[in-house]
Amino acid sequence: MVFSRKLTKKEMDVLLKLQDFIREAHAESSSHDFVHVLSVLRYSIQIGKDIEESADPFIVCAGALLHDIGKTNTVFSHIHGLFGGSLAEEFLDGIKISPKLTEKICRVVVRHTPTSMIPPETAEEKIVFDADTMDRLGLMGLLRGFIGKEGSMGNILNKYMDRRLEDYSKLHFEVSKRIGDAKNQEMEFFIELFADRLSTRMKSIEDIFKTESFQHNS
Ligand SMILES: [Fe+2]
Ligand SMILES: [Fe+2]
Fold first, then answer.
1. Which of 37, 46, 118, 130 could serve as 176's disulfide partner, Cβ 3.0–4.6 Å?
2. pLDDT tens track for 85-120
């Protein structure tokens, strides 16, 4: 199945309108910026084209574009899926999208993140969920993982690795796992190099303390 159908001209116009809204809304965002949204849209299309289940391309694209709209308000960042669902509803109502379609798109927004505690059910919801995970993997994912984090580099890296293993275990489609595997493979070299440099830095600190100039004259 390569999506259930093609996008209509009217739907493309709506998506372009959505793009303008999203670009502006995410203008101040850091790791969840407009580029992240575009990456998730691209991964969503890639996954949607490969799976066997039937998926509606408009719900997938609109859901992908709106998925992190809740992140644009830092106060509600921790419940950004749920909060984003109501922001998306407001916007879609405003541009006269039918209530039925609005509901389907908002479900994608709400269920794209495990933080909402409501797992994705429909093919469209699972596609955007997986696509969002894809942008947390690989070199760009690693760099995004460091943005805004506090603590030592070693701790941030360890937490990042643990979370990505958990993320991988929650993927829904074979194609998502294939993309994830390729990204993990591309990362192996960097992770090893990074871990090695971090331990070398620690060793060199111990060596400094062991040098004669730091010892007491008895
Ligand atoms: Fe998110
Ligand atoms: Fe996201």
1. 130
2. 999 999 999 999 999 999 999 999 999 999 999 999
Write the DSSP symbol of residue 76: G
Span from the CA of 19 to the centroid of ligand 2 (angstroms): 15
Please tell me the pTM assigned to this model: 0.86
Query: Quick check: 95 and 17 in contact, CB under 8 A?
Result: yes
CA distances for 191 relative to 102, 142, 200, angstroms: 41, 9, 14
Interior/surface letters 179-191, b for 16+ CB within 10 angstroms, e for the rest: bbeebbeebeeeb
Residue indicated by tokens 């106060």: 75
* Residue ranges of the chain that CATH labels 1.10.3210.10: 1-129
Q: How far is the CA of 201 from the centre of ligand 1 (A)?
A: 34
